[in-house]
Amino acid sequence: MLCILLSSLLLTVVAEPGGGGTGIPRPARNHLSSLPENVYVRNLFVDRITGPIEQARKVAPDLVREPGYGHYVQFFVQEQRGIVNFCFYHGRDTDFASPVSGSFIVQRDGESGELRRVKIFYKDDPGSYLSILPRGAEDSQMEIYLLGRKLQERINIPFPTEQIIRMPVARIMQLSSAYVNWQFYIPRQEFPPNVLTETDDLAEQIRPYLKELKDAEDGAIDSLGRYVYIGDGTPQSDREQGGLNCSGFVKWVVDGILSPITGELLSVDELKRPHGDYRGNRWSRKLEELEDPFFGLDWTRNLAIRAHQYVHGIEAQSPEDYDVRHLKYHQYKEDVGYPVEQLPTLLYELARDSDNYLYLGSVNELFHGENEVRKHYHVAAFLPWLDQNGRLEVALFDRNREIDLESFIRTHQGAHIHLVRIPHRGVFQPFDLRLEPVLKR
Q1: 3 state SS of 351
Q2: CB neighbours of 61 closer than 8 A, spacing ≥ 6?
Q3: How many CA atoms lie within 13 A of 98 on its CB side?
């Protein structure tokens, strides 16, 4: 297939359509979306790919220029698991691993020829696409997937899917704009670069210091700059040379944001302060002294309280003030948060709608014993941002190192994560750790 597609570079380039008699719409000069269009090329093939299925599946691959936009669209047919895919791609990937935004696929049943759905990729990501499904003779319904998760469904489009195949993508978006915030899914190039990159710059400043950190169970740095044990506050021995656990590490991150403002480090005892009136139940309270099941939740909330106090000058009314609670596409569960598997779309929504924040996450699970109790057993720091093409980027700092988001999700599969917001000013300088100057990009 790949050889055939490459040889298609020598095929004829279709001329700009004229105004009359072709039945093919002119390119939209001011289309709603920023996606590359392929409506002209689709309309060249539409009669052949919607005819009898045995003939449609034999339509030869081709490479055709989309007039008015200057790019080439690659057409090819591929069958997978009984489905015939008629593909209009803006890239050279023919195995669906990395489709380019604007790519359009018409899917038909391999036996009956029934039209199954239309897929339109709106990001350079195989999990971010529109799925348009036939619903009767006059209507279609659309679902929207972001980073592999369905965020919206049952969006009615008052045209049959056979007709939608012929439409510009901008027209499809216009028909659904009453139900879809398209700027959420497809940010345009109108965002100031400093908004897009300030969190990215913060991540760049943190990275060089990670190699200086050591690991130690129950380890943190106290307000005097000493390596201590969180449990009782006693200094760590010289033999261990001082180290941090996951809780001590996120404190180190927040201290590096706040100490340039305050000239001080946060108190370990203050961060350990429990908030029994705001979480737990009568069963968990019996375990507070023995197992401290809500330690991660209380610790991250206390860090958020201090961060907002020093960065924004705001005094918290409640330890829950800076929880990530009110999101449009994710359902918050009290003191639990969200399924870990939702982190990609969760962080996308946060990065899309909020500036100059990093997030501390407290991983928690329900443990079964004599009494069921939910334990917050691990914490980590997340720095999400969107690049200038609207793609999600995440710097994930987890116990003295940086790891990728996919690994974190695999490690904590089935758990939940509770998030709090930490404001920052784009400057990171950890107390008593000095490297060569870290230049911002």
Answers
A1: helix
A2: 1, 4, 5, 8, 74, 75, 76, 77
A3: 3
State how far the Cα of 57 lies from the Cα of 45, in Å rounded to an integer.
Answer: 12
pTM over 0.90: no
Question: Of 217, 132, 204, whose CA–CA distance to 172 is shortest?
Answer: 132
Q: Are 422 and 359 in contact (CB under 8 A)?
A: yes
What Å distances lie between residue 400 and 211, 267, 291, 294, 335, CA to CA?
8, 20, 24, 22, 26
Cα gap 21→274, rounded to integer Å: 75
Angle at 41 between CA 7 and CA 152, to 5 degrees: 115
Nearest CA to 150 among 185, 108, 188?
A: 185
pLDDT in tens, 174-210: 999 999 999 899 876 544 444 445 788 899 999 999 9
48 near 55, Cβ under 8 Å?
yes
For the chain, the first-to-last Cα distance in angstroms comes to 42
- Distances 265 to 158, 253, 310 between C-alpha atoms, Å: 60, 11, 12
Cα–Cα distances in angstroms (integers) from residue 247 to residues 34, 68, 97, 181, 360, in the given order: 42, 55, 38, 37, 10
pLDDT digits (tens, 9 = 90+) for 349-399: 999 887 789 999 999 999 876 667 889 999 999 999 988 778 899 999 999
Phi and psi of 384, rounded to 5°? -100, 145
Return the beta strands (E) in 122-241 as ranges. Answer: 129-135, 139-146, 149-157, 219-221, 227-229
Please give the Cα distance from 441 to 439 (Å, whole number).
Answer: 6
Q: What are phi and psi of 70, to 5 degrees?
A: 85, -5
Residue 197 phi, psi dihedral angles, 5° rounding: -115, -5
- How far apart CA 205 and CA 257 sit, in angstroms, is 11
Decide: 213 and 244 in contact? Cβ < 8 Å: yes
Q: Looking at residue 225, what DSSP letter applies?
A: S
Question: Which of 183, 252, 179, 164 has the alpha carbon at shortest distance from 213?
Answer: 252
The tokens for 223 are 């307000």
CA distance 18 to 16: 6
